[in-house]
Every structure is written in C-alpha cells, then in structure tokens.
Amino acid sequence: MTTITVTVNGVRYTSEVEPRLLLVHYLREHLNLTGTHIGCDTSQCGACVVHVNGVSVKSCTMLAVQCDGAEITTIEGLAQDGQLHPLQEGFWEKHGLQCGFCTPGMIMAAADLLKRNPNPSEEEIRHGLEGNLCRCTGYENIVRAVRYAAEKMAAMQAAN
Amino acid sequence: MTATEMKERLVGRALKRREDPKLITGHGNYLDDIKLPGMLHIALVRSPYAHAKIVSIDASKALAMPGVVAVFTGKDMLDINPMPAAWQAAGVKNYPVPPRALAVDKVALVGDPVAMVVAENRYIARDAADAVEVEYEPLPAVVDARKAVEPGAPQIHEAAPNNIVFEWECGNKAAADAAIASAEVVVKEEIINQRLIPTPMETRGSIARYDAATGEWTVWMTSQAPHVHRLLLTAFVFGVPETKLRCIAPNVGGGFGQKIFCYNDMAFTMWAARKLGRPVKFVEDRSENYKYSTHGRDHITEAELAGTRDGKITGLRVKTWANIGAYFSTVAAGIPTTLYGRIITGVYKIPAAYVHVTGAYTNTAMVDAYRGAGRPEASYLIERMVDRFAAEIGMDPAEVRRKNFIQPEDFPYDNGLGLLPYDSGNYEPALNKALEIAGYAEFRKQQAELRKQGRYLGIGISSYVEICGIAPSAWMGGQGWGAGLWESANVRVHLTGKVVVTTGSLPHGQGLETTFAQIVADELGVPIDDVEIQWGDTQGTPFGYGTYGSRSLAVGGVAIKRSVDKIKEKARKLAAHLLEANEADIVFENGRAYVRGSPDKAKTIGELAAAAAVAYNLPPGMEPFLDETSYYDPPNCTFPFGTHVSIVEVDPETGHVKLLRYIAVDDCGNQINPMIVEGQIHGGIAQGLAQALYEGAVYNEDGQLLTGTLMDYAVPTAAMVPHIETDHTVTPSPVNPLGVKGAGEAGTIASAQCVMNAIIDALAPFGVKHLQMPATPERIWKAIHGSK
C-alpha cells in the first residue's frame, strides 16, 4: 500500500492505495465519484477522461499513485457555484447526449480542447474528440454542443 | 390564462430533455455506480477455445487467495434451468439450445464462462480467476453459417443435428421460380451482411441481492426489458413465483438491442447471492462484452432479382444462411425470419417473392437483435439488388425505384409475405426531396466531368420501409413470439395536482421521459413540470414488454394517452357533479372542465384531482382518486419509410472513401419532439454507415475473435462520421391515435446500402457491380485493380 494525497474537485484526500490501482477505480470506488465512467479496457473510448493538473487524461490509463500531489477535476467538479459549465449547457441545449454514458468523458475532453483551441472549426472538433467514442448521437449534435460552448465562452470573455 | 386562451401545445416542439441535467453533471447512476453494503464481485473464467470439452477445473489455488469467497462451476448450478428461448421461428421445427448460467462439460465459443470467482473486490476476483486451472480437450470449430450446415462440419450440440436451428420460408416459391425462369433480365449476387458488435458504451452486467428471510431477490440489471427478464428468470430459469423477484433497470448506457435479452449473468448473480447470502455484482469488461454478449446481422445470402428491360421488377428469390452463434439467444430466431423475410421486398411492388432462411449454430458469439434487427439486412439486400438491376439495364436507379414503388393508393398494402398490411406511405415525395437536396441531376453532370479528370465520385440512393411499433399480440403469437406485445401505463393525478405516469417502456437514450411528458402535458392540459414519468422498476410500474423495435412511442406512448383519456373521462363526470350540470354539457380543455358557455366557472384538473382524492363529495358510485391504467394492443405495426442519399469520392490509388455528403429524408409519422427524432436519425445513420465503411466482427477459422477489443473493432470516431443533413415528410400512421410510427431504428435501416450504393456507383467505370461490406480501402483497391 502507498499513501497518496490528491485534490479532487477542490477537496483534499489522503488515501492508502495499492500501487496497481487505476486512477479511474480510485475515483469511482474509493471516492465514490461515479460520474467518470469505464467503457472499454484498451484506452479507446474516453468515457473516463478527467483533468489532472489541468490536462485531460484517460483515467483508466493512469495509476492513482502517479497522481500523488495532483489536482484532479472530474465531471462532478465542472459546474461552478451551481452554474453549469458552458459545455454542459451546450450538450443540454443541442441534444449532444442520448444515453449519457460517454458524456462526462466527452465533456471533459471537449473542455481541454477548448482550452487549447477556443474557436475550433467543425473539423477541428471532430479531430479533437477522436479519443472519445459515442455510440448514440452520430456526433452531429456533439459538434453543435461544442460550437455552442465555444461561442458562449467567447461571449463571456468579451463581456468581462 | 383565461379560459379561452389555448395552452401552448408541447407536442411537436423541440423541448430540451428532462433526462439531461443529471447526466451532464456526472450523476447518472448506471449499474456499475451502484454499491451495496457487503457486496461481492464476480470475475469469470472464460474458455480460450471456441469448441472444447471441459476435462477438469481446479480452483484450489484461487480459493487459497486472501479475499476469495467462493468459486463455482456450471455443475454447481444444475439446479437452475438454461436461459429461455423465447422467440422461435414460426411454423417450423426449431432446435433451441440456449446457454446455461455457466457452461457444463463443454464450451461452444471463445469466452464461454466455465467458472466464476466471487471475491471481496474486483481486483482480487480477477487475480483469482487467472489462478483457476481448467483443462480442455479442444474440438474442431466452425464459424461460418453456410459451412456449419454442410455434411462433415463439426457438430456443436447433440440436440441440433447438422447445427441447424431452423429452416424457414415465406412467400411463394413457385411464383418466384417462374418469374425468374421467364424473366427478360435476372441479376444474381452473393450478398454478405457481415457480423456487427452492437457496442453500447456501457457494457452489460447485473447486481443481485437476496433476502433469505422472505426468499426475495432484487436484481439491478442493464436491461431494455426488466419485466420480461423478471418473468423469464423466475418462471423459466429458477422455477419460483414471479413475485419473488424485483428487477430494476437503472440508467442504461445504450442498448441497441444487446440489452433486450435474458443473459446468464442475471441467473448466476441471483444464484450466488442466494448461495452466499451477500449481494454480488458482475459487470463485463469491454472485451468480455465483445466475446460473449450478443452480436448482430451475419447473413450470407444468394439473391436473384428478375425484371423487364424497361425497369419493372417481376420477381425476387432469396436464400439466406443466418448465423445464430453458439447458443440460442432469447429472441434469436425471430430476427432473421419474421423481421427479415417478411419485409424483403421493401418499398416495391414485387409480384413474386420467396425467402428461405437456414439458421445455423457456429462457434461464435450469439447473434440476436441489433438496431433494426432483420430489417437492415432486408433493406440492404433489396436496395443493393435494385441498384444492381438498374445498372444491368442501364436505367437511372432513381427511375427504377419510382417505377416500382408501392403507390399511395395501394395502402393498406399487403406485400404477400405474411406481414400485416403496411399502414400508410407515400414514397416518391421522400425520394424526390432527398434527390433535390442532393442536387441529383446536377451531380450526375459533375460526376461525368470529374470522371474525365480521373476523379471517381458516386451517389447512392436508399429507399426503405421498416416495421415498427412491433405488435399486435395476436399476430406476433402466430410469428412464434412466446408472449404478447401490448404495453401498459398507469396515470395518477395526485392531490397536489402532480401527475405521475408509470410505464413498462423504458428509455436508454431515447428521451422517452421528455417525449411522454410532452404528450401527457398536452392531453391533460397541465404544465409539463407537473408530469413525472417513472419507469425501469418492476415494483411500481405496470407490466411492459420493454423498449426495442421502435415501439415505445407507438405502443407504450399510446397506452399512456389512453390512460389520460380515462382520467379526463372521470374528471368530466366529477366536474359535472360539482358544477351541478349534465356530463354531456361539460367541456374539458386546457386542463379545465366547465359547462359549455360558462368557461369562467371552471374546475381545473388540479381541483378535480383534489376533490377525487379527498372524496368528500363524489357522485354516487364513483371511486376516489384519478388513477387509471390502460393496456394497449395496437391493431397493426407501423411502417416508417424514407429515402437517404449519399455522395462519396473514392481515391483509386488508395481505395480510400471520402463521404462527402449524407442526406436523410425520413417519415416517421407525426413527430412529438423533432429534436429527439433528429438525434435518433443521426445516431442510427452513424451505425449504418459504419457497417458500410468500418465495422465487422471477424473470427478466424479456429473461432478466435480477431476484433475482440475496441482497438480492433472500428466503432467510428467523430472524425469518421460526416455532417448529416436531415429533412422529413409526415405521413401520419392510421394505426394509433398519436399518428406516430417510430424513429429509433430508421437511420440504421437506411444507411449501409446508401453508402455502398454510392461507392459502387463511383466504381462503375472499373466494372465493379458489387462489393462486400465493410468497404475498406483494401477491398476497394482490390476491386479496382482486380478488374484491370
């Protein structure tokens, strides 16, 4: 067992974990943050994407011990002060989800994409989300949702 | 709101989904999110061989590991029955061999579970599963349905000689033979509809809890049909009263058919929970889902289509080998028979048609319904053959379609294949609209120009019709379906005016909560936020057959409407009593009941609900409470239709296909929420075009699944799916009072052939007449260069 200290969604946790414990299982089983999902066992589907120190990672492909000292954001921590993140709003407005299983990872990956490219074209969105699979939407409305968020975030920035 | 002001209708509006807030914030509560106190975890020991005898199983090392609670094998579970074979092919002998909870004595596919480890956590369970030593005696395997029924093929089940599950036919063989023998033109093709893996993003699983004091189970399951699973698991598998089991489907992360069926894990979690006295959880890994949960399609077909030189289709003869996999899955035989053969002629008037289907066991994963279920196979076949015929006689494929369409005045239309009559349709406007959006005539000119420059573009048309709202019970009974197919709903208006709807239908992405709430709010004239839709738990919802076959609106939704109608009827009686008027003079609109001509003295539905609930002053003989249940069994299925058009460019150097445009014009009757309908169409198309371009489950001859993970099985990413252009026509269904037909499967049913027809059109200069799916660059390159 190894002791790790992590900050998840602004809350500090110190835990005893097996060195082999995957980050996704740490979040889901130890911290009960079950919004981060598991859709595959080969790092393809992206349902488990979270942010570690501000960068999107597939939490099924990282060990919990590698996150010692890290700041982690999961889907549960994305809305601030009861206010949905523009991406959450976009997915709702544009029907960017159906069963919702891929959605947390999709939103977290899209958040990282918009950080790197605040005004992505349709093609850039499609390529930017290649690490995330959705089986329900055909991606059409996910693209619209991300565009919605990009525009909203730009408008918010302009207003500030 | 004054009495004369109409409440704004919600039906027909693209309302945002009420399902979404929890899902976008990470509070979905899917199966694997559920934790029960004292819960144990199951890991399975699965066969690495496709076909083998189990010689011995030694669990001693596993049992010695700390944290391991028990190891069980198939022989431990002989006190429960195999899984049920609910839908067998109609009118013929079937040889159903469904799976047991765990394999006994022999295995029939890679991934067949032979033992289960139960441990304190999933890491320990998996470690221990690896420590179970199983000795096998490998046997020869067969994976191809046509080869499986040949003499000398490896025999998989003693109870199914020659690996035949059933041999079934429909249509008129003599007429089809004669039409083909006497035809001016006959086109013949071997058409393979490759095996697909449904791949809902959430894999499958079950959690079972047993209460020894009452002898009752609660099972949480990734299920599209919890009431049916409750019935099958109790009455058929465990032989206990149905009342001993409560099934709960929490949020389900996509189904696409794969979660309709009654699976072994539902049984072995129940068995282990009872045995151990602790709750147990089993959730598949993705690779387990790929190996053992059901697959779809997998047809090999020899098709012949006859016609005249001027484009009239005169006959169709089809011989299909349908791969059923290693065991008989719950409704496996109904898919390649009723839902395939009986709609093989699609949107065309074909005077003579005949279909023969052989269902075969092979050493592969079970095959059962996958989005569209039989109808995509039928639609792919006829639409490919019509294009093949058009090319043969040198006629525009759109023109051949127009020449053979069933005409509006032909409805209700009996296709002669043992289906109920097509309810309504108007096929040509949808075709014309799709072609107009595509700029068809202009494209043909451009295509000819570009070919001169060595660029190969193609356009594909797919006109489809499907069977939705699958019912009625009396007809489905005759199709071999082992039960009814009605749906039910209860509607209650509580004392506070809140409306609670319970339904046996259940969404797993379709947005039914929103769609149903829109209907109820309109019909009852209440704010939509006052309407709650409850589903998914057999305790508290009336029996329903579940959500599949695009039937939840056309059957389940209508049951809700009928319950609301009964509520209104009772409310009207109560209003007449309270307003001291004749019932005949009571008008009920916008959630208010009043005497005709006196809208100002109205009783609102909330007031009437309160009056009915407190029951201080009811008319003589009236029972308290506004609470009504309906069982709705429709008189017919519904038959949505449409035309899709796609444009591709093929690079002859690399064989790469670029999908330039995809246009969908669909007619699903009246639309309750157009945003949700469009979303269903998008998703369906992505799955169909993925069949055309990317996906295919591949087994080697030894029965090893070569596409056993998402690394090898090409579920498309966002960059592999084009922008989809949608439009629609509206031909209401006369079958039900909502005029709805269903939209969940249309996109998938229409799209594979739409893309394949475009690719083959692009390759026409190379003499390519047909190409099997998926149209990978390698396959296309070979088709081009093989023809030189």
Q: How does this structure look, described?
A:
The complex is a heterodimer of chains A (160) and B (788). Chain A is α+β, with helices and mostly antiparallel strands and 160 residues long. Chain A folds into 2 domains: 2-77, Ubiquitin-like (UB roll), CATH 3.10.20; 86-159, [2Fe-2S]-binding domain (DNA polymerase, domain 1, Orthogonal Bundle), CATH 1.10.150. Helix content of chain A is 36%, strand content 16%. Chain A has a 5-stranded mixed sheet with strand order 2-1-5-3-4, sandwiched between helices. In chain A, a hairpin with a 2-residue loop joins strand 3 (49-52) and strand 4 (55-58). The longest helix of chain A is centred in the C-terminal third of the chain and has 20 residues, at 140-159. Chain A is globular, with a radius of gyration of 16 Å. The relative contact order of chain A is 0.16. Chain B is of the alpha+beta class. Among the domains of chain B are: 20-27 and 486-632, Aldehyde oxidase/xanthine dehydrogenase, molybdopterin binding domain (Aldehyde Oxidoreductase, domain 4, 2-Layer Sandwich), CATH 3.30.365; 34-139 and 204-283, Aldehyde Oxidoreductase, domain 3 (Alpha-Beta Complex); 140-194 and 295-406, Aldehyde oxidase/xanthine dehydrogenase, molybdopterin binding domain (Aldehyde Oxidoreductase, domain 4), CATH 3.30.365.10. Chain B is built from 20 helices and 26 strands. In chain B, the strands form 6 sheets. A 7-stranded mixed sheet of chain B has the order 3-5-1-12-9-10-11. A 5-stranded mixed sheet of chain B has the order 7-15-14-13-8. In chain B, a hairpin with a 7-residue loop joins strand 21 (592-595) and strand 22 (603-604). In chain B, helix 10 runs parallel beside helix 19, helix 15 packs parallel to helix 16 (552-578) and helix 18 (674-693) crosses helix 19. At the A-B interface, helix 1, helix 2, helix 3, helix 4 and helix 5 of A face helix 1 and helix 18 of B.
